[in-house]
Specification:
34% of the residues lie in helices and 19% in strands. By secondary structure, the protein is of the alpha+beta class. It is elongated.
């Protein structure tokens, strides 16, 4: 990418002898070149690059791709069962059950955010959902640090079983962080990854 302007800005000929106007155009050209150089080093669309991190990464993925940085949430459920003489009168019936839900969330890292963005916007597999499509997506998620692609030779570690509308993804141990398998299960169940809504997906660790 060029770091200079093809046509330098310049004043009209009748103003070229004005030092202030000439200085203004010189300063404008210098700032323009600095801006172009910065954009060449920080390409907004190249989210897998090391230059995009933190809030700047969030800004670029949202503005260009519509991809939020989600939280991985889960629900903590507590059961309370009413018993005789344990609750005030007319507050809880005998054997009545109260369920309290607490929604908790964990912010995801830049690396995980980039993996999710690659899953949702990678076009090399096409748009039709198939078992090979799913297995490649899973392998790309597990092996593609910072959202990079093409770091696996086969999909043997990933097994997919289908029973009616239930899909079980079994992942054997491999050269990746085993925590990614647990994370994959959570983000699928949170609806963060683009998946067919008519299926129920379960991710398990193989032996």
């Amino acid at each position: 990418m060029r770091d200079d302007l093809i046509y330098k800005p310049h004043p009209y000929n009748q103003f070229t002898d004005d030092e202030d106007i000439a200085a203004f155009f010189t300063a404008f050209y210098k700032i323009a070149r600095q801006t172009i150089s910065w954009m060449a080093e920080h390409p907004f669309a190249f989210y897998v690059g090391p230059q995009l991190t933190g809030g700047f990464l969030n800004y670029c993925t949202y503005c260009l791709y519509g991809q939020f940085r989600y939280k991985i949430s889960y629900v903590q459920v507590q059961h309370y069962t009413g018993s005789i003489n344990e609750e005030e009168i007319n507050i809880k019936s005998i054997d009545e059950e109260t369920i309290t839900k607490t929604y908790l969330g964990t912010s995801i890292s830049d690396d995980l955010h980039k993996r999710i963005t690659t899953w949702n916007f990678y076009k090399g597999d096409g748009l039709n959902f198939t078992i090979p499509w799913l297995k490649r997506r899973v392998m790309r998620f597990l092996t593609g640090d910072n959202g990079h692609t093409g770091k696996f030779n086969n999909c043997v570690p990933v097994s997919v079983g289908v029973n009616a509308h239930e899909v079980t993804i079994t992942i054997s141990p491999g050269n990746w962080d085993s925590n990614l398998v647990d994370i994959l299960s959570k983000i699928i169940n949170n609806g963060i990854l683009n998946m067919p809504p008519m299926f129920l997906f379960t991710v398990v660790k193989g032996s």
